[in-house]
Each structure stands twice: as C-alpha cells, then as structure tokens.
Design goal:
- It is a single chain.
- With 324 residues, the protein is an alpha/beta fold.
- It folds into two domains: 13-139 and 311-323, Rossmann fold; 142-308, Aspartate/ornithine carbamoyltransferase (Rossmann fold, 3-Layer(aba) Sandwich).
- The chain has helices spanning 18-37, 59-70, 91-101, 115-125, 140-154, 177-188, 205-218, 228-232, 252-260, 269-272, 295-298, 305-323, and strands spanning 48-53, 74-79, 104-109, 130-135, 161-166, 192-196, 221-225, 237-241, 280-281.
- It has a five-stranded parallel beta sheet with strand order 7-6-5-8-9. Strands 2-1-3-4 form a four-stranded parallel beta sheet, with helices on both faces.
- Helix 2 crosses helix 12 (305-323) and helix 6 runs parallel beside helix 7.
- Bound molecules: phosphoric acid mono(formamide)ester.
- Phosphoric acid mono(formamide)ester binds at residues 57-60, 134, 142, 284-285.
C-alpha cells in the first residue's frame, strides 16, 4: 500500500504505479464497505472540488458530486459555457485561479485533439490535484471502476480474457478514451486483452504500443482482431462499445458513412453465447439500446452494468480521499 499520494493528479492510470492503483482499489473497497454499513468517512471535511464540464454527463457528475459530499466536502459544478473561458480565460487562468479557490479540480473536456492537452495545461498551472473526468485520450475513473467490478465478479484478474470491442452506435462519434484506458490498465494486471475493431477504428498507435509493452511486463497478452464474433469466443469479460473513427477521418458525414458499414456489430444473445458460460457483459454507459446491444443482453443475467456504474462512486472517493 502507498500512503504518499497527497497532491497527485489522476490524468491517466498509466502514470500511477501498480502499487498505487492497488492502493486506490483497497481504499475503494473499504469505502464501499463503510457506506454499506452506514459508517461515516468524512476525511475531506471543508474541502471543495471544482467540477468543470465542457461536455454532458449522467454518471460522472452525479458520482463525483455525491462522492465529495460523502467525504465531508462540497462539489462545485461548473458548466464551462457559464464561465469566461470563451472570452479569454485560458487553461493557465483556470489552473492558477481555481487552484487557489479549490482543493481539487476535476475536468471533463472530450474535444478531439484538445481535451487531454487542456487538462495537462490546467494541471501544470494548478497547486491542487487535477482529476480527469474524461478527455479525448483517457477515462481513468471509468476504468478503475471497471477493474474493481471485474475483481468483485471474477476475483484475481490475472489470466482472464477480456474482449475490448468496437460496437456500432448511431448517436454520435464517441470518444476513444474508454477502449484506450481499458487496454492500458487491464494489460498491467496480467489479463489477456483482445482489442477487436474494424480497420477504420484504430486507436492511437502510441497507446496500442504501450499496451503491448504493459502485457509483456505483466506476463499477460495483447492481440488485435477485426472479426466481431471472434472477439467474443471463450472470453471471460466482454466490453463491446462504440467509438469514433477519428484517426481515419475528421469529416463527420464520412465517419457516419463508415460507421454504417458496421451496423451488424451489435451485442446480442447469440454473440454472448460465444463467450464463456459465466462471462460478464460490461459497458460504461450510455449505450444505444438495440443498436449497440440488445435489451436482452444489457438487462440479462450476465450484465454487470449497474454495479459497474456504482463503482464509479467508490473509486472516485478513494482517489479524492488519497490525493486531496
Ligand atoms: N460512463 C460515463 O462516463 O458516463 P457519463 O458520460 O454519463 O458521465
């Protein structure tokens, strides 16, 4: 266990050691247990978290806001469109000034080619920890919650096979931050990680290389497939979700046309039957029901999506309690 995390940013799990991630999980399980028992754990009394959103959210806002209050503090929700950011306040102003008002700055900025750099620029100017609530590259708190859920449902993740797969969705070009973060973290825990996607839906190559290196060091494995059905075969965990083909085209019309070639990439009961009998179905949500996944699967006995969403609360509280 690591006990010296005060002041640390959480921008990507890759910048935390495995020992440090184990500490987060350990604290998250403890806080979850305490909440179930009704034991107060107000270790951040009088601390205030800024929650700056450039993008919509159901789970992330609610779980951070509730989490900081359960720790004895307060969450200040800030919609970027209500600030002076569009009138000149740069990332430096946000880091310098919010760093003096608040005890932590959490940011969601998912704009392609913008978000990660923005969060890093705020962090460079801030005297308090900066927490990434999702950017164009990473969604670290989602993936910590995913790992916690896998441990709850399956025990030791080492040697388990997870299929991180593209799935079709019609709603919008979703960020690739979830699959990138999944391949980066699950390879570090010795899992056999399959990344399955059509050729146009590549992830950023630097992170694919990093995932390969993580797998080599942790004695797991990492492979890339382009056959949707093959990705499900004998998997312990299936995580099919949509993302955009931003590395293939920046044209929204063209990307919609490319995506339409893959309307058959929907998770249904036949595909779930290709995975192990006790396989679990995971999704970060929101999902496009009956386009990305059938109601029968997402509401079925193998789905763990609501426990997964709950665990956002516990891992976020753990990181806030350790860093703020
Ligand atoms: N999974 C997730 O981040 O959900 P929201 O976009 O609703 O916050």
């Amino acid at each position: 266990m690591q006990t010296h995390l005060r002041g640390r940013d959480m921008i990507t799990t890759q910048e935390w050691t495995k020992d440090e991630i184990d500490t987060v999980l350990d604290v998250a399980f403890e806080l979850k247990r305490q909440r179930a028992l009704g034991i107060s754990h107000a270790s951040l009394r009088d601390k205030v978290l800024a929650m700056l959103f450039f993008f919509t959210s159901t789970r992330t806002r609610a779980s951070f806001e509730s989490g900081i209050v359960q720790l004895g503090g307060h969450g200040a929700f800030i919609d970027s469109t209500t600030t002076q950011i569009s009138h000149g306040d740069t990332a430096k102003e946000i880091g310098e000034i919010y760093g003096r008002y608040f005890d932590g700055i959490a940011i969601r900025q998912c704009d392609w080619g913008v978000g990660n750099q923005y969060i890093r620029d705020v962090a460079a100017a801030s005297r308090v920890p900066v927490l990434n609530m999702q950017c164009d590259h990473f969604h670290p708190f989602q993936i910590l919650a995913d790992l916690m859920t896998i441990i709850e449902k399956k025990g030791d993740p080492r040697g388990l096979t997870i299929n991180v797969s593209y799935a079709y969705a019609a709603s919008y070009q979703k960020p690739m931050s979830v699959p990138i973060s999944l391949i980066l973290l699950m390879t570090r825990f010795g899992m056999n990680v399959r990344l399955t996607h059509p050729p146009e839906f590549n992830l950023m190559p630097q992170y694919v290389e990093q995932a390969k290196e993580n797998a080599r060091k942790a004695r797991g494995s990492f492979e890339i497939l382009d056959d949707f059905d093959a990705g499900f075969k004998d998997a312990d965990i299936v995580y099919p979700k949509s993302w955009g083909c931003m590395l293939t085209t920046s044209d929204l019309q063209e990307s919609a046309e490319i995506s339409k070639k893959y309307t058959g990439w929907i998770t249904d009961e036949r595909r779930m039957a290709l995975a192990k009998e006790d396989a679990i179905y995971m999704h970060c949500l929101p999902a496009d029901r009956n386009i990305e996944v059938t109601d029968g699967v997402i509401d079925g006995p193998q789905s763990v999506v609501y426990d997964e969403a709950e665990n956002r609360l516990h891992v976020q509280k753990a990181v806030m309690a350790l860093t703020m």
